[in-house]
Amino acid sequence: MSATAPTLCSLSPESGLEHHLPSSFLHPGEVFASATPHVITTILGSCVAMCLFDPLTGIGGMNHFAIPRSPAHDPLSTRAAAGALHTLLARLEALGARRRTLQVKLFGGNSVLSLPERDDPEHPTAGPRPHVGQANVAIARTLLAEHRLPVVRELVMNPRGMMLKMVTATGDVWVRPVQTVRPALPLAAVR
């Protein structure tokens, strides 16, 4: 990792960032990008957030997607990974960010929800179905690799949800664990 890569640190309640910068809260399916300093906050369970930052221009943004694949009738839905990444990249580039210098921080993918079992006898499930969080993380990694966007930090597939705060002008992200509605299922260690 280069010396200019943005940092990942614990959220300090004393930081008071929300009081000094404009802020926005992202719900599932929302995307936000800014060329001016802004704090983006979201809360993740099985959803995933991709935080993208261009250190040369100081432009950054975040998406928050809930499902791995878009429904056939809405292929660029920002509730799904591909649509959320496509929209965030378009907004960042429209503001002047350069794709070749973007850095990514990846968060979420908790094991809160399971994917439905397959009913198709011709395609039996080989082992347990992944959780929505696992599927979200897997598709995010695949899409980011296809776009040649380097992941400089990730905090994924934890047993607890998390609150994120990203400063768009620096790429810094603060993370604080939050309680889930019900206990998450145990997961194998990832990376």
From TrEMBL:
<comment type="similarity">
    <text>Belongs to the CheD family.</text>
</comment>
<dbReference type="GO" id="GO:0050568">
    <property type="term" value="F:protein-glutamine glutaminase activity"/>
</dbReference>
<dbReference type="GO" id="GO:0006935">
    <property type="term" value="P:chemotaxis"/>
</dbReference>
<dbReference type="InterPro" id="IPR005659">
    <property type="entry name" value="Chemorcpt_Glu_NH3ase_CheD"/>
</dbReference>
<protein>
    <recommendedName>
        <fullName>Probable chemoreceptor glutamine deamidase CheD</fullName>
        <ecNumber>3.5.1.44</ecNumber>
    </recommendedName>
</protein>
<keyword id="KW-0378">Hydrolase</keyword>
<dbReference type="InterPro" id="IPR011324">
    <property type="entry name" value="Cytotoxic_necrot_fac-like_cat"/>
</dbReference>
<keyword id="KW-0145">Chemotaxis</keyword>
<dbReference type="Pfam" id="PF03975">
    <property type="entry name" value="CheD"/>
</dbReference>
<comment type="function">
    <text>Probably deamidates glutamine residues to glutamate on methyl-accepting chemotaxis receptors (MCPs), playing an important role in chemotaxis.</text>
</comment>
<dbReference type="InterPro" id="IPR038592">
    <property type="entry name" value="CheD-like_sf"/>
</dbReference>
